[in-house]
Design goal:
Layout lengths: L6 H8 L4 H7 L4 H11 L2 E5 L11 H8 L1 H8 L4 E5 L18 H7 L8 H20 L9 E5 L14 H5 L5 E5 L22 E7 L2 H13 L6 E6 L8 H5 L21 E5 L9 H8 L3 E5 L4 H9 L9 E7 L11 H7 L6 E7 L7 H8 L6 E11 L7 E6 L7 H4 L7 E4 L3 H8 L10 E5 L10 H15 L21 H12 L4 H8 L8 H14 L9 E5 L11 E6 L25 E3 L15 H5 L15
Parallel strand pairs: 1-2, 2-3, 3-4, 4-5, 5-6, 6-7, 7-8, 8-9, 9-10, 10-11, 11-13, 13-14, 14-15
Antiparallel strand pairs: 11-12, 15-16, 16-17
């Protein structure tokens, strides 16, 4: 029946399906194949699988797998091209130091193998990446790219964004550009002088800026696109003390001829993210137009952050913000005296839909924060509050360390945010305290995603994921309805076939256990005190997804999701399992519920699977990664 649908309708259906479903559907018939291939390869990502070999992209394997002719035809449909790599441990000096010399490159410049000259090794590293990128660029349609994302975390290689490079010559209609470069590299800043040749950009993101030449390239690019730029994200590796830098980036000092009281330098800018950028402490009437017209404002560890917010709250023109995110350390910036500036800012306007805060050493005496949050209660849809305070490590108070703490007003949460409005909630609190807090409103809330946050570095020595999986295995083997493989005997309680990836998450773990003795040893870990946290989380998940829990809840997250999978061992994600949809390929299911309550109620989930986020009214992955701990790229002197 689907095969008889008009091509236009098939295309609309394809746009709402995940890539895995599109690939399966394209095998049904030649008509499906012709209609769906453009959608499958509209978004295409090439990556370095290891951050210790950043010049080994999977581009060659793409051509080997599909063949040159077919790969070329697929690339003709690409609109959004991504080049990426993990950024977990290697957060600085990623160029050349984290690479291997591939065999394909040795014939041209074999003398660089083991070379002591860092500049030569760096040049060879970039040449190696360029050779691979050219295989892709040569097969793209001219002016076909809508978005280009460079998330390799290295310097930009030659021939891409330098003057006369591929993007500036052959993809002039590019509308979205996202860059993550290595500002800590001593050879950075080169091959970026072609940014100013891109004149159709609507969204610009650049993380990892450090050098003055990079700043000049950024300013020229913004000036070239000032009239139509809608979204701007700028992140520095380390804090810049140049107080005029923000004005230069935002064009507040450009000689653009505008009438007095006319449009701002960036008239269409609605989204602004600044990280480690020194902000203007006072806004002139001309400066304020840019900030007051914003719909989304995100400030992460920016000097003068509170002064800017205080200046904005005193402006006579009403703010139009719908989303506000702030990460700030009150102790780091000793010049800050007006601690109430953040509260005054939040009280100065109405209509905020998304409020995301990560505050370090926020004065505990500042009780007005509760009033500021409650001020936006009628419109607030997602709320994140992550507080960290200096805590004594000994009775005498001689040693202190910054730790996650629940907010003082946490017991009164149901009266501070509207349970009928909030769909996304993230807080630093124990699972048991959260259950106690939400029990009074669990059946009346519209909560879809709940995130129990903690800072990954605090538990970097622990594998939270493995601890929880060990508990799940322990519960499965104790169940009278579970066989030796950990499967439920009830055939109707099974995983959807499209969700077999979740079973593999457990299979991968069990395969690492060589024998019954090791299984018993791993299961015995649940008796140790530190593993009571995993047991507490699972008990909370059983309540939350169970018949006495939160009916609207779809996803429960635990841990630190900063910068995607940087803290993958300190995070765990579960999703509600609808028994009506439980019909797995093997007719079996994993039991993740209390044996006396029935079930199963939930399954482990993965960030990359679109099924995880089905039914959510907002962007789940973006919500989990908001207010990250630390920068994506970091200076070795600030880590």
């Amino acid at each position: 029946m689907l095969d008889e649908l008009p091509l236009e309708l098939l295309t609309l259906i394809a746009q709402s399906l995940p890539t895995s479903s599109l690939r399966a559907l394209s095998c049904v018939s030649f008509r499906f194949y012709s209609a769906l291939v453009p959608e499958i390869y509209r978004d295409l990502a090439f990556c370095a699988l290891s951050e210790w070999a950043l010049n080994v992209l999977n581009i060659n394997s793409f051509f080997l797998r599909h063949g040159s002719l077919r790969a070329s035809s697929y690339l003709q449909h690409t609109k959004n091209l991504h080049i990426e790599a993990p950024i977990h441990l290697a957060r600085f000096n990623r160029c050349a130091y984290y690479s291997i010399f591939r065999t394909a490159s040795l014939s041209r410049c074999s003398s660089t193998l083991g070379a002591s000259n860092n500049a030569t090794a760096h040049e060879q590293f970039l040449c190696d990446i360029t050779d691979q990128l050219q295989l892709v660029f040569a097969r793209l349609k001219p002016n076909s790219l809508y978005a280009f994302r460079w998330r390799l975390g290295t310097c930009m290689p030659m021939g891409v964004l330098d003057q006369g490079g591929y993007l500036s010559r052959h993809q002039k209609s590019l509308a979205r550009l996202s860059l993550v470069t290595d500002g800590t590299c001593p050879h950075a800043w080169s091959h970026l002088d072609g940014l100013s040749e891109l004149s159709c950009l609507k969204e610009l993101e650049w993380e990892g800026i450090q050098h003055s030449a990079e700043i000049d390239s950024l300013q020229q690019c913004i000036r070239q696109n000032w009239s139509h730029l809608t979204s701007l994200s700028v992140g520095f590796v380390s804090t810049s003390n140049d107080i005029t830098l923000c004005r230069d980036i935002l064009g507040l000092r450009w000689p653009i001829p505008t009438l007095r009281g006319g449009p701002p330098a960036l008239p269409r800018l609605s989204t602004l993210l600044l990280s480690k950028v020194t902000l203007p402490s006072n806004l002139s009437p001309g400066d304020s137009l840019i900030f007051l017209n914003l719909r989304v404002l995100k400030l992460r560890d920016c000097p003068n952050q509170l002064q800017l917010l205080g200046s904005m709250s005193r402006c006579q023109k009403a703010l139009r913000l719908e989303q506000f995110e702030a990460c700030f350390d009150f102790q780091l910036h000793h010049q800050v005296r007006d601690f109430s500036a953040l509260v005054d800012f939040l009280l100065s306007f109405h209509g905020l839909r998304h409020l995301h805060l990560r505050l370090f050493n926020f004065p505990s005496s500042e009780s007005r924060m509760k009033d500021a949050i409650q001020h936006h209660q009628p419109t607030l849809e997602t709320f994140i509050y992550h507080e960290r305070q200096l805590a004594s490590l000994d009775d005498d108070g001689l040693f202190e360390e910054v730790r996650d703490v629940p907010p003082a007003w946490f017991p009164h949460l149901p009266t501070i945010v509207d349970p009928h409005k909030v769909t996304g909630l993230a807080l630093c609190a124990t699972p048991s305290a959260t259950e106690l807090c939400l029990q009074s409103v669990n059946t009346h809330t519209k909560l879809q995603l709940l995130h129990l946050r903690f800072s990954g570095p605090e538990r970097i020595h622990r594998n939270i994921r493995q601890e929880i999986l060990a508990h799940l295995y322990e519960r499965q083997t104790d169940s009278p309805h579970v066989d030796s493989l950990g499967h439920c005997g009830n055939a109707h309680l099974s995983l959807p076939s499209s969700e077999c990836e979740y079973d593999s998450l457990f299979d991968d773990y069990f395969e690492t256990l060589p024998g019954d003795d090791t299984v018993a040893q791993d299961a015995s870990m649940v008796c140790s005190p530190r593993h009571t946290e995993a047991e507490e989380f699972l008990s909370f998940a059983e309540w939350a997804f169970g018949p006495c829990g939160i009916p609207s809840l779809q996803v429960l997250a635990f841990g630190d999701f900063s910068h995607e999978e940087r803290y993958q061992e300190q995070q765990f994600l579960v999703r509600r399992l609808d028994p009506a949809l439980a019909c797995g390929q093997n007719g079996v299911a994993r039991c993740f519920s209390d044996n006396n309550r029935g079930g199963p109620f939930f399954v482990p989930a993965v960030m990359s699977d679109t099924w995880t986020w089905d039914g959510l009214s907002f962007d789940g992955p973006q919500f989990l990664s908001a207010c990250p701990g630390g920068g994506l790229m970091e200076s070795p002197y600030e880590m």
